[in-house]
Amino acid sequence: MSNSLPLSALEIARETLRQLALKKLQPTPENYRTVFFEISGDPAISSFPDQELKAIQAVLPRKNAKQIRFARQLETAIAEKSWAGLQNAVTELSAIQVGTEVSWPDLLRNLLQQLDMSHAEMTRLQKKESLEHILSVSATSDLLFSRLQSLVGSWNKNTLTTPPVLVEDALLVSPVASDLAVVNPVEKSNKKLLEPPDFPSNLAALQGLLGQFLNNALVTVLHKSPDLLAEVKEISVALEAARDVPTLKQLVERFKRISYRAHFVVEDEVELKAVLLRLVQLIVDNISELVVEDEWLSGQIKVMQMLLNNPLELRQLDEVERRMKDVIIQQSMLKKNLTEANDRLKLMLAAFVDHLTNFSEVTGSYHGKIEEFSEKISLAKNPAEITDLLNEVMHETRLVQVDTARSRDEMSLMKNRVHNAEQEIARLHKELSATSQLIRHDQLTGVLNRKGLDEALQKEINRQQRQGVPLSLALLDVDNFKSINDTRGHSVGDLALVHLVEVVQKTLRPQDVLARYGGEEFIVLLPGTGVEDAVAAMMRVQRMLTREYFMDKDDKILITFSCGVVAVTDLEAADELIRRADSAMYLAKRSGKNRVVAA
Fold first, then answer.
1. Most CB within 10 Å of its CB: which of 182, 193, 327, 370?
2. 365 or 599, higher pLDDT
3. For residue 571, which phi and psi values (nearest 5 degrees)?
4. Within 10 Å of residue 485's Cβ, how many Cβ atoms?
């Protein structure tokens, strides 16, 4: 038996049925599968229940980050039909549940204990205010449990058994504050250790820091909470006018309370954002199913689905907004032309119906006269009367013939007009569908075109002015591109540009902006990057191109480029920036090509 050849699948199946009969086993799928793998000698492989798991995954809750993460892990495992991925997802969920599970009785017991204990930074009244606020803003039991757990944990860290290092400790080291009460000797010794030699400058710096935080951060966060916003402004005004340590200590206490309450406002905003995103996702998915045959919206729907399935970024949202506006404008113009073409077609069809009606009336009158002439001819008594009647018949026939010829010509002309209108409508439909995909992007490479570059550059300059971060612009030109077109053809040259774009996008960061400036010239915007780092980034792209050759059939073609890099300032116009980058790029060309030169 050891030298026998392996059985074929058909032989294994036949032997399986024979063994089932010999063992008097029911031919169920489970029994058949067990015997089949016993005969084949292969390990039994369980089929993946993807349909059943998809049904479970569809009804999973997605109310918090952990639930969303588990749902995505499960979805990935199902898509890949991976038992290992499924096992990892369930194991991780189980570990999270074991690590974080606290029963309501334990939580309430800890809450009551901490409420009665003395804390260094909060009075009993302040703790009750915090508890009341949590109870009033927590919409679900899960959210209430999480917030109460965080609250109890924060109180537990600040009990008097472990002397805390307070924010105001830096204020209490002044000679002016020597008469302030000290909680206990241990805390006093800690404060002495924190005493800085230059108290006045530290005090001013702390005032300025807190003032900036209140005016720049909290005011923005709390714009939807008028009561908290008013209190923040009061603290900011009082902080600016404070000139002694006791006053500052009181303000710090108020600052702590307002920061604690602001935490819940931010948490509510995050939860609201998550709910809105899920709602938009449902709407977009529903629209995509309803308009599956309509290509006018396909591009916009794909963009929205891409956004909702990835982490949101402000720069990406700005770009999509510009793209959507451009598409809406173009589609509105095309829709207007399409409506006008449809109206013209309706008018032509109405005129056609009128002509048919008139022609029917003419032919009806003609048939009536022919019948009348037929009766008169049958009653005629001499040839002269018959001749007169025949002349009248010929006259009426000629009139009908003229009307028929005119109607035929008009109908032929109308047919041509209808055909032209149908072609125009088809063209407009095609343009509407294509416009949904075109959005300020180069058709060949898919990167931004000139118009998209202008808007992106202005947007980055505005962001640079607001945030005070560096911004660099790199202009690159493909070396010896004309020879590629001349020797291998323009189609190969186009594919070479597409290859270049793919390598650049893969090497640079997601926030970097790539645009086709013209021909074989491209511009890269590098936000948050100085000139030296921008030069290093473009050199990394050059090195990547030496490793990833462009293939034309079986030929390897090395694509290189010369590049000029400039620092973007708000004092220069866009044309001047590009001119300086262009000059640096030509200097790189003259220096031997495949170089990066900073202006």
1. 327
2. 599
3. -90, -10
4. 16
